[in-house]
Amino acid sequence: MTKKLIDIVLLPMVGIAVMFCLWAIASAVTRNPQTNKATLPGPIQTWEQSKIYIVEPFAYRGESDQGILRLTWLSLVRVMKGYLIALAIGTPVGFLLGSSELFRKCFDPIIQVLRPVSPLAWLPLGYLLFMGLRDQYGMDVGEAAAIFTVAICSLWPTVMNTAVGVRAIPQDYHNVAKVLNLSGPQKLFRILIPATLPYMFTGFRLSLGIAWLVIVAAEMLTGKSGLGGFLNMEYNAGIQEHIILCIITVGVVGFILDRVMSLVEQHITKLPHLLSVIRGGLAGLRPQNRSVAHAVS
Amino acid sequence: MPFLELNNVSKSYAGTPVLKNINLSIREGEFVAIVGYSGAGKTTLMSMIAGLVKPDDGEVLLQGKPVTGPGPDRAVIFQNYSLLPWMTVFENVLLAVEQVFPKWKTVEKKKYAEKYIRMVNLAAARDKRPNELSGGMRQRVSVARALSMNPRILLMDEPLGALDALTRSTLQDEIERIWEQDKKTVVLITNDVDEGILLADRIIPLSAGPGATLGPAVTVDLDRPRDRTAINHSPRFKEIRGELLRYLLGPGAKRRATSEASAVRLPAVEPADLSVRRGWRLFGNRSAAMG
Q1: Per-residue model confidence as pLDDT tens digits over B180-211
Q2: With a CB-CB cutoff of 8 Å, which residues 60-99 of chain A face chain B?
Q3: Residue A135 contacts residue A200 (beta carbons within 8 Å)
Q4: Which of A27, B57, B76, B151 could join B10 via S-S bond, C-beta 3.0 to 4.6 A?
Q5: Nearest C-alpha of chain A: how many angstroms from B87?
Q6: CA A207/CA A191 separation, integer angstroms
Q7: Angstrom distance (rounded) from CA A240 to CA A235
């Protein structure tokens, strides 16, 4: 067996095994000697009670009783909606915060105040906001409030990291832009964005982590079907095994999301090619009355 | 009319004068080297010519017109190369070409960029990114980028400062060869007197800061092309070198010494325990008188 295989398979297995042991011990501790029942179900009991969700991951037995991957998918779709809204708002705000002193002075304090607010606190606000819009546009208030909460909570890492990235651009690059007389959009696409990309992607990754963290809370409170909604329902129904199933699923999916994002992050150096393609498309829009063009000797 | 002119230019940072009363006049096609101590304000001087920094006092004139901001007519070769790391060698040069000749056809721009990459002998590294290149190669890209802008004046800020001695001399020869080809006006900032003598028509020493100013210019009337090994034995080379060093180590260094002395001003109060010493002396005197 190669060392790499030991590192990525065998050693994590040790960690998982230890975790399962601790879980079994914790379950044994809660066992009532009279009834011989544990309040915290152990690993085996959990598997037996919830295997139907795993062996039939795409089953649909009703809105509140679906296979685990189906529930995961519902949650993921909701997370992606909120997350994309967060990126669409967070990236430009981060750029403004990092590049404009005036903007920073205006908005940095309020951002710092809003940033630590818990998702649980945003949700009622989302409800109030969309409640008013429901009558006019016939929207699903719970759904909208959940997405709103995900978006507003996962916004901040993107904003902060992008701003830091823009501020960390070396003076040299600014000098190059000045000496070459780059126009505003040119400077943005050819210097600012490529120079900030690594920071931006760190922000994107952290934001996705937060978005996934928030979805459980948002679904629990709105009762929307998904991992969080299922968890809440089974809690109310007293089926503890299903709660544990949800927790494990949330953890595993979060881990996979983070891995995918860090893979993207590592290959970020290839993105400038993509950017130059976008730029090629924008070239037609670029003003042509530029700078001192002397005759070539 | 001089091509580039600096009249009584001064610049301070946070109250500390960096440059004081800089007067400089450069002819078209002249290669001028400014030699001075590190930290004396050489980069500030160059940044003012480039238009990246505004002088507090005085004016910078290019062909009689005041310099108000940076522009591609004054190409800069920075000490740390300032290449964009996400672009290849070719893309770095092409970016400059695109900026300066926006009306050209794409094919023309590409050909033109390639011409300068060949000129600095980097054709083989055309599609490499800066982090795959050595320091010397990076600086060549920077040279190619600057030249491809077809600037009216080329500003080099210690371009070879970060390179090892051998690469340095190779690039010096290359800069001389390229300059011979189109005789651009060049301002070279360096801390290496020999480098200045090898490349420049005229060398001006910059005194030590704070409040650095330019010393008397020395004309380098050595025949071109200059051979670095032969030049070492030339009596005129030694003379020029001696003249520059005499200024830089003599009057040019003094400003630093005097200003440092004035910065650490000693208190004008008399130490209290001086009286003890005085008593001793009194005693001594008395004993001497007694004896």
Answers
A1: 887 889 999 998 888 999 999 999 999 887 88
A2: none
A3: no
A4: B57
A5: 8
A6: 24
A7: 7
Is B63's Cβ below 8 Å from some Cβ in A?
no
The pair phi, psi for residue B214, each rounded to 5°, is: -85, 140
d(CA B179, CA B30): 10
* Closest Cα in chain B, distance from residue A221 (Å): 45
Chain A's closest residue to B103, CA to CA, is A288
Whole-number Å distance between alpha carbons of A187 and B198: 38
Distance CA A81, CA A234 (A): 26
pTM: 0.76
3-state secondary structure of B153: strand
Partners of A276 on chain B (C-beta within 8 Å) are: 91
B151 cis-preceded (ω within 30 degrees of 0): no
Quick: pLDDT tens for A208-246. 999 999 998 899 888 888 899 889 888 898 888 889 999
Report the alpha-carbon distance of residue A205 to residue A260 in Å, rounded. Answer: 9
Q: Please, what is the Cα angle at B165 between B223 and B150, to 5 degrees?
A: 60
What interhelical angle do A68-99 and A240-266 show, nearest 10? 40
Please answer whether residues B171 and B136 qualify as being in contact, where contact means their C-beta atoms are separated by less than 8 angstroms. Answer: yes
Say whether the peptide bond before residue A170 is cis (omega within 30 degrees of 0): no
CA distance linking residue A203 with residue B71, whole number of Å: 35
Selecting from A172, A191, A269 the residue whose C-beta is nearest the C-beta of B80 gives: A172
Q: CB distance A293–B76 less than 8 Å?
A: no
The answer to whether the Cβ–Cβ distance between B72 and A180 falls below 8 Å is yes
Q: Measured between beta carbons, which residues in chain A are less than 8 angstroms from residue B50?
A: 179
CB atoms A190 and B50 under 8 Å: no
Go through chain A and tell me how many residues it has. 297
